[in-house]
Amino acid sequence: MSLAPWRSLIARALHRNRSLPYARYVQLATVRPDGKPANRTIVFRGFLEETDHLKFVTDDRSEKTQQIADCPWGEVCWYFPNTREQFRIAGKLKIVDRADETLQKARQQAWQDMSEAARVQFAWASPGQARADLETFSPPIPSQSDPLPQFCLLLLEPIAVDHLELRGDPQNRHQYHFNQGTWRVESVNP
Amino acid sequence: MSLAPWRSLIARALHRNRSLPYARYVQLATVRPDGKPANRTIVFRGFLEETDHLKFVTDDRSEKTQQIADCPWGEVCWYFPNTREQFRIAGKLKIVDRADETLQKARQQAWQDMSEAARVQFAWASPGQARADLETFSPPIPSQSDPLPQFCLLLLEPIAVDHLELRGDPQNRHQYHFNQGTWRVESVNP
Known about the structure:
2 copies of one chain form a homodimer.
Chain A: H1 7-16, E1 25-31, E2 37-43, E3 54-59, H2 63-70, E4 73-80, E5 85-96, H3 104-113, H4 116-120, E6 151-165, E7 172-179, E8 182-187
Antiparallel strand pairs in A: 1-2, 1-4, 3-6, 4-5, 5-6, 6-7, 7-8
């Protein structure tokens, strides 16, 4: 496959902002069952091999997993401070849980790619519930190879990307749309 | 009035992150007319006097203004890099345009509080439309006192705030809910 035309722009932005660990943090918007929006910071974990799908991880006990089951659409907002540019990436979200049959290997790899500190958080008490006793946050260290049952790989399959560069004078803005297997790009007003 | 209990936490975070201009950038999630989420970076411009309402600005020709007219709910995600903490602020959005009768003074003040560079962007060609000629991005400098017709003050009236501190061990997370005129706080699992 050939990469989407916006992939090289993301790669360049990641490189030029590599001094900032939080340049890999993005904000993911989803829709709640009551129709209101939700928004939270998540960590970008690379692209799924041979695809343009963004990888994240989530806990199947989290609110966002439930929201995505109800409405599988998401939009990531990704601001890069050093280069002063923003990517808005809209697309379909896919939860890869322990029952998924086609992407189990990718789920396992995502687990193995995380730090131990990140893995152990999946053994903590249920997120968003009334604060549990302190000892529940010191669980046994989970296996490095086999994901805990509640661990999910979260994929975003982009259908539209809006790239804004604040540094231009005037600023530059390009919109990419995926249609019938092809990405088209258009220059628009910022 | 007394300030909401999370106001001092925001003030502290702004102070401790004051070395980063982009610590005033937040991501606002809204819902599109087709029910899918939208997400973009906007600039925090303080609180509306005598209230806990967050101030932003927008252009009435932008997609977000149209989205908000259709669905007035929003959620801001605000990540502070230096202190490694996140605020998720959910609430009702209100557009204060040139026809608004009660908050016209606040709209005018927001215009005057902006830099000239920020004000002139409201005189640019319509955002999101096919790229206009270069000269349309060098319009006459607008008045410093009177807002352009398309300029809107955007208010977020919070009803829920979720504060996550990544630095704790374990992390700390508190949820604030506004109910019958009172804020209640609960400690929850991160």
